[in-house]
């Protein structure tokens, strides 16, 4: 088998990502994706993390499939202390074992909610986390591949070209619109974007899905007041508000954290504008604090939520009820991510993916 100049492709899954690594190996080596050469072979090297008797952490992983290989670390945020600590240990290990190339694939970019300064109390942290990753890898970190960054400016953290973003927005929005059409909402679907930033980011995605499915998707834009990264308030709506009456409203955004803003928005479009249903459609289902209980409440005005598997739901037992009753629908990443990794491994342009 021919390898690229960085050696054979090895996936190194962080805790909770071993199943994803196995699925990606099958997808890349399989023959069901015409955009991937089935002769590309994939190794999986699973690290072991633990604590010594004095509570100091360690990582264990042999050199097989590491030294001289194109090593891709599979992980995701949110970037808590354990995730960041284990990632930095693993990057140091891969550098010490002379990996041919080191790449991080993170579904949810760690510390991405800290993309803006919080007044005089906090500083934006994406640059810090990139510098820590680079230092831990002894300067050998080649690339960070992330799904739908919280803010476009995150790509500017670190060395030029270090961060590559790929989007799942079209995939998740298309699924929601298809299922809305199957439910009989032809001509009664309206897209709600939370602010002007979302309008700039998602207008082309909405137009593409509209053209692909042959359906008109009126758009409403929210005017939102945000006091900090945790709290915001919907002040009003502009755009095609006439289409909200009796409509299925699809609230499109990059993530849901506590769910309170989406809950308040859903209640407003139902009570003030006469919408029939509200579906939240996002890329990252952070669903922190008591969001699972909020979404599962019979009083919750959000009827259905679509997310991607950027933060793997199978590792989160608190989401089990929402998944079972159909209130939470997950769009898998495997097929898209397999193509991303194939393009990356063979040094092809990820932005040229179809």
Residue share in helix:
25-40%
Kindly estimate the percentage of residues that lie in beta strands according to DSSP: 15-25%
| Radius of gyration using CA atoms only | 21 Å
Distance between termini?
26 Å
**Total helical elements:** 9
Mean pLDDT: 89
**Count of the separate structural domains:** 2
Which strand order spans the largest sheet, edge to edge or round the barrel? 11-10-9-12-13-14-15
Number of strands: 15
Note poorly predicted spans.
Answer: none
* Strand and helix order: EHEEEEHEHEEHEHEEEHEHEHEH
Write up what this structure looks like.
This protein folds into 2 domains: 9-167 and 334-352, Rossmann fold (3-Layer(aba) Sandwich), CATH 3.40.50; 169-331, Rossmann fold (3-Layer(aba) Sandwich), CATH 3.40.50.2020. By secondary structure, the chain is an alpha/beta fold. Strands 11-10-9-12-13-14-15 form a 7-stranded mixed beta sheet, with helices on both faces. The radius of gyration is 21 Å and the shape is globular. The chain is built from 9 helices and 15 strands. 30% of the residues lie in helices and 25% in strands. The chain has helices at 18-29, 81-96, 126-136, 169-182, 196-213, 260-271, 291-296, 320-324, 334-345, and strands spanning 9-13, 42-44, 48-51, 57-60, 70-75, 101-106, 141-147, 163-166, 189-193, 219-226, 232-239, 248-256, 277-285, 304-308, 328-331.
């Amino acid at each position: 088998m021919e390898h690229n100049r960085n050696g054979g492709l090895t996936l190194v899954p962080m805790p909770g990502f071993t199943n994803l690594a196995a699925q990606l190996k099958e997808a890349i080596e399989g023959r069901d994706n015409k955009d991937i050469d089935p002769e590309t072979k994939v190794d999986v090297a699973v690290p072991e993390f633990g604590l010594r008797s004095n509570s100091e952490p360690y990582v264990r992983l042999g050199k097989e499939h590491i030294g001289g290989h194109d090593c891709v670390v599979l992980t995701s945020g949110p970037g808590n202390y354990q995730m960041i600590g284990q990632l930095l240990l693993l990057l140091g290990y891969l550098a010490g074992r002379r990996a041919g190339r080191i790449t991080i694939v993170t579904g949810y970019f760690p510390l991405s909610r800290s993309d803006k300064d919080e007044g005089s109390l906090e500083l934006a942290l994406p640059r810090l986390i990139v510098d820590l990753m680079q230092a831990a890898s002894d300067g050998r970190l080649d690339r960070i591949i992330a799904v739908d960054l919280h803010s476009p400016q995150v790509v500017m953290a670190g060395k030029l070209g270090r961060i590559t973003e790929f989007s799942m927005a079209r995939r998740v929005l298309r699924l929601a619109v298809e299922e809305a059409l199957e439910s009989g909402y032809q001509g009664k679907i309206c897209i709600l974007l939370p602010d002007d930033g979302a309008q700039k980011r998602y207008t082309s995605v909405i137009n593409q899905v509209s053209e692909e499915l042959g359906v008109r998707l009126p758009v409403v834009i929210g005017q939102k007041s945000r006091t900090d990264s945790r709290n915001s308030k919907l002040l009003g709506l502009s755009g095609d508000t006439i289409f909200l009456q009796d409509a299925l409203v699809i609230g499109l955004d990059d993530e849901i954290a506590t769910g309170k803003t989406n809950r308040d928005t859903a209640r407003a479009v139902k009570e003030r504008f006469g919408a029939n249903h509200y579906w939240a459609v996002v890329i990252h289902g952070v669903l922190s604090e008591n969001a699972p209980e909020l979404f599962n409440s019979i009083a919750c005005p959000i009827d259905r939520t679509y997310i991607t598997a950027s933060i793997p739901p199978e590792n989160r037992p608190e989401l089990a009820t929402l998944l079972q009753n159909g209130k939470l629908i997950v769009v898998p990443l495997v097929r898209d991510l397999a193509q991303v990794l194939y393009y990356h491994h063979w040094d092809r342009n990820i932005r040229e993916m179809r």
